[in-house]
Automatic annotation (TrEMBL):
The keyword Amino-acid biosynthesis applies. The lineage of its organism: Bacteria, Bacillati, Actinomycetota, Actinomycetes, Kitasatosporales. SUPFAM superfamilies: Diaminopimelate epimerase-like. InterPro entries: DAP_epimerase_AS (IPR018510), DAP_epimerase_DapF (IPR001653). The active site is at C87, C221. This is Diaminopimelate epimerase.
Amino acid sequence: MTGAQPVPFLKGHGTENDFVILPDPDGLLELTAETVARLCDRRAGIGGDGLLRVVRSASHPEAREMAADAEWFMDYRNSDGSVAEMCGNGVRVFVRCLERAGLVKAGEVAVATRAGVKRTHLAEDGSGVTVAMGPAVLPEGAVNVRVGARSWDAVHVNMGNPHAVAFVGELADAGSLLEAPAVEPAAAYPTGTNVEFVVDRGHRHVAMRVHERGSGETRSCGTGACAVMVAAARRDGLDPVADGEDATYTVDVPGGTLVITERADGEIEMTGPAVIVAEGTVEAEWLRA
Ligand SMILES: N[C@@H](CCC[C@H](N)C(=O)O)C(=O)O
């Protein structure tokens, strides 16, 4: 992955969706799937649901075209080392990390991702970060989620990455989620999917659990919360673009709360916390072993 020098890292989370963060402005790290999985290992590594590499867009082949609009590229990996298009909690933590390093100031910050450029707003008082996540896409066709003997109709939502959203009676109905739920038809999700289980908590207020593609059950998923908000709004007869009126939902996740607004122009805005908890260095020898 690197030479003999220790590798700087940070650790952060957004609603307890936690990340190993590797500052790599010039894109010099060779980050294999195996290296990512080792770093994200909770016993033998640092531990995290995923990894965020902080690299200048101009220094990364997947982001060069976005460099004029966003100086920084969020190279996101799941904890099993797989690459994902987008991470909603990750992008908030990513801009918090840039702010902490003095690379950006509070206010508007654009971030390049594999799902395009995302515009964020860092609150001046450090309270949270709002991200314009783009519009949701709801591909046609029924999908179904199954855990053991139980199954539910689900809503297929794409937030740059894929989601299957199932409304359930109780969050416990999803079981232990130690294994990935079965989702059918498999052809609807050629690269796998994240699965959300949702219950109502009140007026425009829901709670969810998530099984993330490439990471397992996590304490939160930002893109998942946006997918849940859209699925709940449609179920409730709301379509902000058709109605000409914004709709806001509170989405509780095991690790906290996210507030999601679907605007009348179709843009989905997510607001939530972003916390850096530690920084240090990784032994180069260990990484190479
Ligand atoms: N936790 C993330 C989503 C991370 C990517 C996901 N596991 C995938 O493979 O699509 C979020 O906060 O959105």
